[in-house]
Design goal:
The chain is α/β, with parallel strands linked by helices. It has two domains: about 130 residues, Rossmann fold; about 190 residues, Alpha-Beta Plaits (2-Layer Sandwich), CATH 3.30.70.1230. Helices cover about 45% and strands about 25% of the residues. It contains eleven helices and 13 strands. Strand 12 and strand 13 form a beta hairpin.
């Protein structure tokens, strides 16, 4: 710290000592000097302005140096003020007590110019370093709070999106994407064939166990293919692609996911059949424009995809038999170079005005 910038408080009941000390400090470049006759006056000075260092005599009337140190130690705003004790030769025990009470250093009387320069300079340098560390601590605390808030946002977003998408949104400040907007998406519906009969004839614990296995396998594939899970409805799942992060070919992501789902569903189906559960998986896929955004209330939010494309995907799913992946011609056109598909003819779907040319996706082209 530059001597001209440092504010020093000299506290001594002896006027000659105060004069000698302040004169020598001025010679060292310390011009911002304030004096006090006793400890009580010193505390009043400390309340009215900030100081960088106090030079404090031990034996004084009204309030001695020990009492001043005790007040400083009890005051959160003053306890970090460095204090150099002014002590007469032979007051070693008193100096030790002052150090124990929080004093930084001591300066023996009579004053030695070299020792004065060294101890005042060292105390101010230590204060400067402590102030820097304290500022770093504040900055670190602010960064930690920001990261905690970011983790909180990330945790909430992971309820909507795959981990990599959630992290991308948070790191880019992308919570704006949760606001209502319109985008072309690919919607995928999954539904278990035979689930109603299964639940009618099974114990609730068995139903929950099957759903847990099913959701675990399907969920991993949704995340792996960068899908956004809108909701679970018992055995039904709705996933969409191309939001909130745009994908190069969302239809391709959706189809690859659906094919892997059917492949990984096979061992689940076989295991359940051994236990007497007749279940299979149907999938519907459609591409089109939808309105998207967060809906709900504080404490409970969902990320919604609303539009005719969701109804179309759901109706195609309801028409699919176990093992099938049904899509419409519009979606197929985006990926016909990628997949193998067989025509199913025109399907009359509930809630859809015109018959829909449908196709069963059977695999990827080699």
């Amino acid at each position: 710290m530059n001597p001209s910038d440092a504010a020093l408080l000299v506290v001594d009941d002896n006027e000659d000592n105060r004069y000698t000390l302040t004169r020598r400090l001025k010679r060292e470049g310390y011009a911002n000097l304030t004096t006090a006759d006793n400890g009580k006056q010193a505390l009043e000075q400390l309340k009215s302005r900030k100081f960088d260092l106090m030079l404090l005599d031990i034996m004084m009337p009204e309030m001695n140096g020990y009492e001043v140190l005790e007040h400083l130690k009890a005051d959160a705003e003053l306890r970090d003020l460095p204090v150099i004790m002014i002590s007469a030769v032979g007051e070693v025990e008193s100096v030790v007590r002052c150090i124990e009470l929080g004093a930084e250093d001591y300066l023996p009387k009579p004053f030695d110019a070299t020792l004065l320069r060294a101890r005042v300079g060292a105390s101010l340098e230590k204060k400067r370093l402590r102030d820097e560390v304290r500022e770093w601590g504040k900055q670190l605390e602010a960064r930690v709070q920001e990261q905690v808030a970011q983790l909180d946002r990330l945790g909430r977003l992971k309820g909507f999106f795959s981990p990599q998408l959630a992290e991308s949104i948070v790191s880019g400040g992308g919570e704006e994407l949760l606001k209502t907007h319109r985008r072309e998406v690919v919607v995928v519906f999954l539904d278990l064939r035979g689930f109603t009969a299964f639940t009618d004839g099974s114990e609730p614990e068995e139903v929950m166990g099957v759903l847990g296995e099913y959701h675990r396998v399907m969920g991993q594939l949704i995340m792996a293919h960068e899908g956004t899970l809108e909701r679970f409805v018992g055995d039904g799942l709705m996933i969409f692609f191309n939001d909130p992060i745009k994908l190069e070919n969302p239809a391709a992501n959706a189809v690859r996911m659906a094919l892997e789902m059917q492949a990984q569903f096979a061992p689940l189906r076989a295991g359940w059949k051994k236990r007497g559960f007749e279940l299979d998986l149907g999938i519907g896929i459609a591409q089109g424009y939808a309105t998207l955004g967060a809906i709900g209330f504080e404490g409970r939010w969902d990320y919604a995809c609303i539009g005719s494309v969701t109804n179309l995907a759901a109706r195609l799913c309801s028409e699919s038999k176990g093992g099938q992946i049904i899509t419409n011609q519009k979606t197929l056109a985006r990926i016909e170079d990628l997949i193998q598909a067989e025509p199913l003819g025109d399907l009359v779907l509930k809630g859809v005005a015109h018959p829909v040319p449908a196709f069963n996706i059977t695999g990827l082209k080699v």
